[in-house]
Amino acid sequence: MKRHQCRIVFPKVSDVLDQDQEWIFVERNGRMQKIRLHNYGDLYRIPGLYEELFYEKLGCDSPNVVCRLLARAMERHGGPDSLRVLDFGAGNGMVAEKLNELRNCEFLVGIDILEEAKEAAERDRPGLYDRYMVLDLAQLDEFNRKRLQSYGFNTLVTVAALGFNDIPSRAFLNAFNLMRKGSWIAFNIRDKFLSQGDDSGYRTLLERLQDTCFRILDQTDYCHRRSITGRELCYRAIVGQKTADADIDGLFAGRSSG
Questions:
Q1: Mean pLDDT in residue range 164-169
Q2: Using CA atoms, how far apart are residues 175 and 82, in angstroms rounded to an integer?
Q3: What is the pLDDT of residue 30?
Q4: Which residue ranges traverse the bilayer (predicted)?
């Protein structure tokens, strides 16, 4: 992979910043640019910056944790010999690359809402995906729904994308319903979104999914990455199987569509 010619500078900030408020300076060609860590498009435009920032400097381990948890669950519970994967919130392809190392991926489709993500995946990991689509699954039209269903997915992975207004819960449910019954679902989410005091709606949503259409087979709590001040950001990785389609309108009855 071609690497950027720039320098990452961490600001001196208080530890009260949440992870979607964090920012850095990037010094490049004699100019200093301020970039929020959740402005992924700005990060993807600079080759190798995303990897250096999140994985080398902040120790992000989520692709490894989630993909290994999925592979282990498949070994224990009899997963398919070959995977037809929807990588939702695919970014520049790091999750698909790890999963492809661990399991036989017959067919890989990436979806992200950012054009910059697709460009970065094609630039940094050419040939990894069979298809890469820039789509907003929260507004999934019938043409693309049928097109995606025709791919016959048996695995959905969503890593470091739920919460913080990155992927709305309705978009995740639309992706969930693209899977066949019995498909494998693997994702992670910040621990605070599963706590008693959660107001994001994800805790209630997961409970309702478990009651109606999703069976958890394995899960683990771990450090997703460090904050820019060195604090551990704890997540939960979850792997399970779809048992039925989600009743999306029913799940959102009485609450906003997140």
A1: 72
A2: 20
A3: 84
A4: none
